[in-house]
Amino acid sequence: VHRPQLLFLDEPTSGLDVINARALRALIERLRDAGVTIFLTTHYLEEADRLADRVALLVGGRIVAADTVEGLKARVADGDAMVEIRYGDAMESERIRLCSCDGAAAVRAALARAEAAGREIVSIDTVRPTLEDTFIELTGLSAEVMLAEKGGQ
To answer: Rounded to 5 degrees, what are φ and ψ at 37?
Structure first.
């Protein structure tokens, strides 16, 4: 319709089915990549993580933290490497997380542990804080606290 320089979107994917939400996120990404400044409010932190260059976390109408997504995540990362290993065999699957100051050492330990136990490693992934983890850490709000603040139990 037109080419705005500035666009305000309030919960744009709320209530949309998966296909239309995906299409709208793709459109938002194209607009962002074309240089449009977009103010996006959302409760879907995965969406903010994917679409935003900068994020402001609001609690009670006040900004408690604002930075790039990576900058916010770096505030809560403790410097240790978290490695998640998923083992699998015909009978069962198991997922464990190892924390180490050296990610490579954690992976080597996981490989040795699997070999000694005769287990197959299905995947090894590094685990970083999500934007949701970051929100909870920086705001101090858990689901229970938020529910209580809204008058629930």
So the answer is: -85, 125
H/E/C letters for each residue in 6-61?
A: EEEEECCCCCCCHHHHHHHHHHHHHHHHCCCEEEEECCCHHHHHHHCCEEEEEECC
Question: Rounded CA gap, 23 and 80, in Å?
Answer: 37
Which 3 state secondary structure label does DSSP give 86? strand
CA distances from 2 to 31, 41, 93 (A): 12, 22, 52
The pTM (predicted TM-score) of the whole model is 0.67
Vertex 33, ends 128 and 71: CA angle to 5°? 30
Structure tokens at 148: 């209580």
Model pLDDT for residues 40-90, shown as the tens digit of each residue: 999 999 999 999 999 999 988 899 999 999 999 888 876 666 778 888 766
Q: From its phi and psi, is residue 60 left (phi > 0), alpha (psi between -120 and 50) or beta?
A: left
Show the tokens assigned to 150. 């809204």
DSSP label at 128?
Answer: -
